[in-house]
Every structure is written in structure tokens, then in C-alpha cells.
């Protein structure tokens, strides 16, 4: 008999439909700061406000800010001379700053301070002439920004093949750094692989995978084993949201899906499902999670239990360039 069609009976013999809701989930301090930066810039300077790349990787956030007058561009050369441009939470390379300066753009840098911390580490170890192995996903904006700090010292390690093939100048002077939004477990696997080849590989001075990424993975792991289906609210281009799907599956969820909106849930996914886990990536406003809970409740999954593994209290000050112009 397939356990996919079984459901745990409750006291009156009916299948017990329930939702486990992960906490922490959703907005992290860096995303909150970046979104508020665009909102405040629109209020303070008036539209249009240009934003290089998606301010955070979430469709709903980008669409909402676009409606309010933000114009999202791929690069600074699309911004009219002298206009205001905001750099996204994922960070930019020094070359992008230089381009903006050349084109006389006014800039506000909404790079998350925890990404800036990785940039500082990259600069410091490049200055000390280390080979830096940057574990991250090829093509991700954050990785491009970090690698741009010291392109001659940094090599990207994305896949197991990369780790098996990468070469360094001096195996006694090599350090790994990482993208902030990776799976903790997979990153450690990659590090172990690299360390086999380079036993003197140094660790970063502090964790590069940020508190928010780690906390959301811990929370989804805590409930995944009890879930027939985990719904991760997040966009397809959100690295940390995609990692939550993978972590849920690795931690025992029988299925896991990434959705932007409640209406994307396919009723077929719920066939034979008893417990649904719900979580969301660090760039997702909680209103989208609430819509998912309402959708589930309308179909009989009205009982919600929050599974709390941490209480986050971190907040970051808005960028200095904006703060000085805010009306007090
Ligand atoms: S996920 Fe982490 S690094 Fe990225 S914006 Fe949020 S706190 Fe910053």
C-alpha cells in the first residue's frame, strides 16, 4: 500500500489535515532594508527611481514597487545621465560603482551589510595575495559582485566538478568564501571536497552564509519529516527559496514545491496529503504566505501550528546616502 494515500486519523477517525508553519520565514533584515530604501526614495525624491536589477528576488515585490514608480534596469547604462539609481541587496562590483560615477548617476547602495561583509573579506584576502575559492552559483548577481572585488584572486566553485578541477597558485595560501544564500549542508560538502585537495584551506573569519538563510533552513528541517508536502513561497530566481525546497526534501518531506502565489498551487498536489508545511524565502512578504494559508484553509487545512526554531531581532539602518535626506 502506498503511504502517499494514507492520512493520520484524528480522534473522530477523520484524516487530520493540518499545516505546519515555519518560523522564521520570509523577510530578512537585508531584504526589509532594501525594500524600504526604494519606498523611502520614491517618497523622498519622487518617481522615477531607477533600480539596478531586481531589488530583491521576488516577483510580487518588484511588481508592487514598479507600480509605485520604480524602474528596474539590467545595468546602469540604461539609467539617464544624472538620475538616481539604487543598487540591489545582492551587491555590485566596484566596476558598477565606477560606471555610475562616470555617468554622473546619483546612487544609493542597498547592498545587504552581510553581503558587504563578504566583499570586505574578499578584498582583505586578495590584498594578502590569497587564492580565494568562492563557493556560489554561477551567474548569480551576488557572486558577480563579490568576484568583481578581486577578479584576479577569486575563482568560482559552483559544482562538484569545479571543486575537483580548480587550481591554485599556492596550496598553503588558499581560503574559501561563499555566497550568503547557499544550502549550509551542500556548502560543507563542497568545502570537504576542496579540503581533500588543499588540506591547508582556510575557513572564512566568520560564516558567510547569513543568519537568515541558516535560520530558514533549520526551521524547514525541523518540520519537513512530518510533512507530506512542503510549500515554499518564493520566486524561481530566489536562491535561498530554491535551497529551502532542496533542504525540505533532504530532511524528509515527501514533496516540496516552490510557488510565487497561492493560485499556483495545483489541487492535485494535495491528493493523499495530511500535513502541509509552509515556509517562505527571505525575500517574501508575509502577505503572500497568509494568502497560501487562506487557500489551504478553504480546502480543509485550517489547523495551523507554528514551528518556531529561532526568534530574529536583527535590523539594519537604512543606507547613509538616503538617511541624510529623510524628513525627521
Ligand atoms: S538573505 Fe541574508 S545576505 Fe541576503 S539580504 Fe537577507 S540577510 Fe542579507
TrEMBL record:
Active-site residues, record numbering mapped to chain: 142 (proton donor)
Gene Ontology BP annotations: dimethylallyl diphosphate biosynthetic process; isopentenyl diphosphate biosynthetic process, methylerythritol 4-phosphate pathway; terpenoid biosynthetic process
Pathway(s): Isoprenoid biosynthesis; dimethylallyl diphosphate biosynthesis; dimethylallyl diphosphate from (2E)-4-hydroxy-3-methylbutenyl diphosphate: step 1/1; Isoprenoid biosynthesis; isopentenyl diphosphate biosynthesis via DXP pathway; isopentenyl diphosphate from 1-deoxy-D-xylulose 5-phosphate: step 6/6
4Fe-4S as UniProt keyword: yes
Record bears the keyword Metal-binding: yes
Catalytic reactions on record: dimethylallyl diphosphate + 2 oxidized [2Fe-2S]-[ferredoxin] + H2O = (2E)-4-hydroxy-3-methylbut-2-enyl diphosphate + 2 reduced [2Fe-2S]-[ferredoxin] + 2 H(+); isopentenyl diphosphate + 2 oxidized [2Fe-2S]-[ferredoxin] + H2O = (2E)-4-hydroxy-3-methylbut-2-enyl diphosphate + 2 reduced [2Fe-2S]-[ferredoxin] + 2 H(+)
GO MF annotation, one: 4 iron, 4 sulfur cluster binding
Cofactor, free-text remark: Binds 1 [4Fe-4S] cluster per subunit.
Binding site for [4Fe-4S] cluster: 28, 112, 210
Cofactor field: [4Fe-4S] cluster
Residues given in the record as (2E)-4-hydroxy-3-methylbut-2-enyl diphosphate binding sites: 57, 90, 140, 180, 238-240, 283
EC number: 1.17.7.4
EC class: oxidoreductase
Ligand binding (dimethylallyl diphosphate): 57, 90, 140, 238-240, 283
Residues the record lists as binding isopentenyl diphosphate: 57, 90, 140, 238-240, 283
Keywords: 4Fe-4S, Iron, Iron-sulfur, Isoprene biosynthesis, Metal-binding, Oxidoreductase
Membership in a protein family: Belongs to the IspH family.
NCBIfam families: ispH_lytB (TIGR00216), PRK01045.1-2 (NF002188), PRK01045.1-3 (NF002189), PRK01045.1-4 (NF002190)
Function: Catalyzes the conversion of 1-hydroxy-2-methyl-2-(E)-butenyl 4-diphosphate (HMBPP) into a mixture of isopentenyl diphosphate (IPP) and dimethylallyl diphosphate (DMAPP). Acts in the terminal step of the DOXP/MEP pathway for isoprenoid precursor biosynthesis.
Protein name as annotated: 4-hydroxy-3-methylbut-2-enyl diphosphate reductase
Lineage, opening ranks: Bacteria, Bacillati, Actinomycetota, Actinomycetes, Pseudonocardiales
Amino acid at each position: 500500500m502506498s503511504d502517499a494515500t494514507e492520512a493520520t486519523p484524528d480522534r473522530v477517525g477523520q484524516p487530520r489535515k493540518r499545516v505546519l508553519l515555519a518560523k522564521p520565514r520570509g523577510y530578512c533584515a537585508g531584504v526589509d532594508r532594501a525594500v524600504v530604501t526604494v519606498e523611502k526614495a520614491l517618497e523622498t525624491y519622487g518617481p522615477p527611481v531607477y533600480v539596478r536589477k531586481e531589488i530583491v528576488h521576488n516577483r510580487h515585490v518588484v511588481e508592487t514597487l514598479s507600480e509605485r514608480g520604480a524602474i528596474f534596469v539590467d545595468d546602469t547604462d540604461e539609467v539617464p545621465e544624472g538620475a538616481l539609481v539604487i543598487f540591489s541587496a545582492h551587491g555590485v562590483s566596484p566596476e558598477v560603482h565606477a560606471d555610475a560615477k562616470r555617468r554622473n548617476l546619483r546612487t544609493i547602495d542597498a547592498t545587504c551589510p552581510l553581503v558587504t561583509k563578504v566583499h570586505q573579506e574578499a578584498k582583505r584576502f586578495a590584498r594578502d595575495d590569497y587564492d580565494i575559492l568562492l563557493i556560489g552559483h554561477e551567474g548569480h548577481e551576488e557572486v558577480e559582485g563579490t568576484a568583481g572585488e578581486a577578479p584576479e584572486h577569486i575563482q568560482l566553485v559552483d559544482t562538484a566538478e569545479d571543486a575537483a578541477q580548480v587550481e591554485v597558485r599556492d596550496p598553503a595560501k588558499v581560503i574559501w568564501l561563499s555566497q550568503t544564500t547557499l544550502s549550509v549542508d551542500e556548502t560543507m560538502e563542497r568545502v570537504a571536497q576542496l579540503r581533500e585537495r588543499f588540506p591547508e584551506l582556510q575557513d572564512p573569519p566568520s560564516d558567510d552564509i547569513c543568519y537568515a538563510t541558516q535560520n530558514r533552513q533549520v526551521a524547514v528541517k525541523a518540520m519537513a519529516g512530518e510533512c507530506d508536502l512542503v510549500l515554499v513561497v518564493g520566486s524561481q530566481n530566489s536562491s535561498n527559496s530554491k535551497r529551502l525546497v532542496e533542504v525540505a526534501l533532504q530532511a524528509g518531506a515527501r514533496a516540496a514545491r516552490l510557488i510565487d502565489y497561492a493560485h499556483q498551487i495545483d489541487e492535485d498536489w494535495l491528493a493523499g496529503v495530511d500535513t502541509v508545511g509552509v515556509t517562505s524565502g527571505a525575500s517574501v512578504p508575509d502577505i503572500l504566505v497568509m494568502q497560501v494559508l487562506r487557500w489551504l484553509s478553504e480546502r480543509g487545512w485550517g489547523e495551523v501550528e507554528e514551528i518556531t526554531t529561532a526568534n530574529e531581532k536583527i535590523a539594519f539602518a537604512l543606507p547613509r546616502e538616503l538617511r541624510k535626506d529623510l524628513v525627521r
